[in-house]
Amino acid sequence: MDRRDFLRTCAAGTSALALGPRVAHGAPHHPPAPAPDRMAWWRDARFGMFIHFGLYSEPGGEWNGRATGSHEWMRHNAKIPHEEYARLADAFNPTAFDADAWVRTAKAAGQQYVVFTTKHHEGFALFDSAVSRHTAMHTPFRRDLCAELARACRRHDMKLGWYYSIMDWHHPDYLPRRDWEPRDATGADFGRYVAFMKAQLHELLTHYGDIAVLWFDGQWEHTWTHAAALELEAFCRRLMPGVVINDRIDVAVPADAPAGYHRAGDYVTPELAIPERGLPGQDWEACMTMNSNWGYAKDDQAYKPAPALLQLLAETASKGGNLLLNVGPDGSGRFPRPCVEALGAMGAWLRTNGAAIYGTQGVLFDRAPYRPGDATPPLVRATRGARTLHLLLDRWRGGALVLPDVRQAPRSARVLGADGVPVEWERTPEGLTITLADRGPNATLPVVQLRFDSALRIGG
């Protein structure tokens, strides 16, 4: 069963989709009290880059001339024998890989952190590992991609995160094997696999400088347990106390969980969907693809345009979450051009409107903004600071806009990047009414910023 099959089968009742078969996000999440500053940068960042790269990138979802679907899952989907798939490493040679170019693209997009697949479910490591020969160092490429990316992130002042899959289709001690796979599991010892995994995580957390995020995945199979998750979390924190860890280190919360049950991880990870009302009381990050796949897909050119991606960013921030937007480099190590172009356009928007995203909190109005006389309410996303409210408009339209949940009069109001466009306001019995000029910026998601003299109150 691949990720999409699992989602169709198991996602009912959850508030978001999953990168692989894993926990229901409607379950309670009670992380330990974080160090005072551990999550602060992450909450302010709001926007990061996910990079899926591995052996699967070169075939790009094609095997023996046929598309496999869900391309980073191609070995499972196409039921490729272990020995045959492993031979992809013999030709792994992404000569166009340029860590600085990757990080410059993220920087230009306005992204604040990068999360890179050090080892996906296929078990192939993109770093130098003393405990495995199934790595990029034992291929024609013979380079440590993680080391180069870590140096590039330091040069460009970019936070770095490691994705690491608990599930491993290559390692002889990982259990269970694929249900279609004839490879003999006699003598396999999952405890030895856990020791191997810890050895690799020790390398990732001690050889590459400061690591901001550990992004686990592949924890849904029965061999992984809650106790193992807690122990692994403690192991990682001993090595890197300030690292931020996602929820996919742990299994689902059992229905009969006792009071005070603690699930490992700092934040939850809805996938390919944004929860309707966010996840109040929880830190969360929506991971999204730019087309329909995580790994590079030769047969998938349906890249989302920049305006659609900006809508995703605005929606996520307005609901109090982060957006982790994925790029799947091709087999040569290049980012697809449509990704680079769309990310560049997002960065241009953020250079003007970043105050509405970075360091903000989400605002969900109980009573939606409306235009007097209109039967259909306009789409208005909102974020806030202590004394600031940002209204992210789906399009510019002059006239009155009533905010029933805002009763304070602002000290000032302006359109970000268009200070010459007047914005008027008045307090009315219906709420704060702002009036926009007929002619405004011809831009994606124009932002009206309201500043207040006292602490902003919403609702009531």
Describe this structure in words.
The chain has 460 residues and is of the alpha/beta class. It has ten helices and 17 strands. The chain folds into two domains: 354 residues, Glycosidases (TIM Barrel, Alpha-Beta Barrel); 91 residues, Golgi alpha-mannosidase II (Immunoglobulin-like). 23% of the residues lie in helices and 18% in strands. The strands form four sheets. Strands 7-6-5-4-1-9-8 form a seven-stranded parallel sheet. A hairpin with a 3-residue loop joins strand 11 and strand 12. Helix 5 packs across helix 6, helix 5 crosses helix 10 and helix 9 packs across helix 10.
> Might you state the CATH topology name of the largest domain?
TIM Barrel
Q: From the alpha-carbon coordinates, what is the Rg to the nearest angstrom?
A: 23 Å
Largest sheet: 7 strands, parallel
Q: Give the DSSP E fraction (strand runs of 2 or more residues).
A: 15-25%
What proportion of the residues is helical, as a percent range?
A: 10-25%
CATH superfamily of the largest domain: Glycosidases
Distance between the termini: 48 Å
Strand order of the largest sheet: 7-6-5-4-1-9-8
Total number of beta strands: 17
How many distinct folded domains?
2
Shape: elongated
Mean pLDDT: 91
Strand-pairing-aware structural class: alpha/beta
The CATH architecture of the largest domain: Alpha-Beta Barrel
Helix segment count?
Answer: 10
Order of helices and strands: HHEEEHHHEHEHEHEEHEHEEEEEEEE
